[in-house]
Amino acid sequence: MSVDPSRRRREAQPWKPLAPERLRPLAPVYDNGCFVISEAGEATTWAVHHNGRWGIVYECSGVQILSAWVTEQDLPLHVLAEALHGDEQ
To answer: Is 44 strand, coil or helix?
Structure first.
Protein backbone atom coordinates (compact mmCIF):
# COMPACT_ATOMS: atom_id res chain seq x y z
CA MET A 1 0.00 0.00 0.00
CA SER A 2 1.53 3.32 -1.00
CA VAL A 3 0.91 6.65 0.64
CA ASP A 4 -0.70 9.30 -1.51
CA PRO A 5 1.24 12.58 -0.89
CA SER A 6 -1.92 14.62 -1.50
CA ARG A 7 -3.54 12.98 1.56
CA ARG A 8 -0.89 14.04 4.07
CA ARG A 9 -1.88 15.81 7.24
CA ARG A 10 -2.01 19.55 6.94
CA GLU A 11 0.44 21.73 8.85
CA ALA A 12 -0.36 22.71 12.42
CA GLN A 13 -2.16 26.03 12.64
CA PRO A 14 -1.56 28.66 15.33
CA TRP A 15 -3.98 28.48 18.25
CA LYS A 16 -6.74 31.10 18.20
CA PRO A 17 -7.87 31.79 21.78
CA LEU A 18 -11.15 33.38 20.71
CA ALA A 19 -13.51 31.34 18.59
CA PRO A 20 -15.26 33.31 15.82
CA GLU A 21 -18.59 32.93 17.59
CA ARG A 22 -17.15 34.38 20.81
CA LEU A 23 -15.82 37.85 20.09
CA ARG A 24 -14.45 38.46 23.59
CA PRO A 25 -13.57 36.33 26.59
CA LEU A 26 -16.32 35.47 29.03
CA ALA A 27 -16.52 37.60 32.15
CA PRO A 28 -15.49 35.76 35.33
CA VAL A 29 -18.35 34.25 37.31
CA TYR A 30 -16.50 33.82 40.61
CA ASP A 31 -13.84 35.92 42.33
CA ASN A 32 -10.52 34.33 43.25
CA GLY A 33 -10.25 33.73 46.97
CA CYS A 34 -10.84 31.47 49.97
CA PHE A 35 -14.33 30.82 51.31
CA VAL A 36 -15.26 28.95 54.51
CA ILE A 37 -17.32 25.82 53.95
CA SER A 38 -17.47 24.82 57.61
CA GLU A 39 -15.77 25.41 60.96
CA ALA A 40 -15.71 23.31 64.12
CA GLY A 41 -13.27 24.03 66.92
CA GLU A 42 -9.75 24.10 65.47
CA ALA A 43 -10.82 22.58 62.13
CA THR A 44 -11.84 24.61 59.07
CA THR A 45 -12.76 23.43 55.60
CA TRP A 46 -12.12 26.00 52.87
CA ALA A 47 -13.18 26.29 49.25
CA VAL A 48 -10.45 27.96 47.20
CA HIS A 49 -11.17 29.50 43.79
CA HIS A 50 -8.16 30.30 41.59
CA ASN A 51 -8.42 31.28 37.93
CA GLY A 52 -11.50 29.20 37.16
CA ARG A 53 -10.62 26.14 39.26
CA TRP A 54 -12.02 25.11 42.63
CA GLY A 55 -10.18 23.33 45.39
CA ILE A 56 -11.09 22.20 48.88
CA VAL A 57 -8.63 22.49 51.76
CA TYR A 58 -9.04 20.92 55.19
CA GLU A 59 -7.09 22.74 57.88
CA CYS A 60 -6.62 21.81 61.54
CA SER A 61 -4.92 24.14 64.05
CA GLY A 62 -3.57 26.25 61.18
CA VAL A 63 -1.99 23.28 59.38
CA GLN A 64 -3.21 22.18 55.95
CA ILE A 65 -4.02 18.48 56.31
CA LEU A 66 -5.68 17.63 53.00
CA SER A 67 -6.48 19.37 49.72
CA ALA A 68 -7.92 18.43 46.33
CA TRP A 69 -9.24 20.01 43.14
CA VAL A 70 -13.00 19.62 42.77
CA THR A 71 -15.78 20.66 40.43
CA GLU A 72 -18.25 23.45 41.07
CA GLN A 73 -20.98 20.84 41.70
CA ASP A 74 -19.05 19.57 44.74
CA LEU A 75 -19.44 22.85 46.62
CA PRO A 76 -22.27 24.06 48.86
CA LEU A 77 -24.48 26.79 47.40
CA HIS A 78 -23.63 29.26 50.17
CA VAL A 79 -19.97 29.16 49.07
CA LEU A 80 -20.83 29.71 45.41
CA ALA A 81 -23.13 32.60 46.34
CA GLU A 82 -20.40 34.26 48.41
CA ALA A 83 -17.85 33.84 45.61
CA LEU A 84 -20.01 35.37 42.87
CA HIS A 85 -18.09 38.06 41.00
CA GLY A 86 -18.98 41.50 42.30
CA ASP A 87 -20.86 40.17 45.33
CA GLU A 88 -20.48 42.80 48.08
CA GLN A 89 -21.28 41.71 51.60
So the answer is: strand
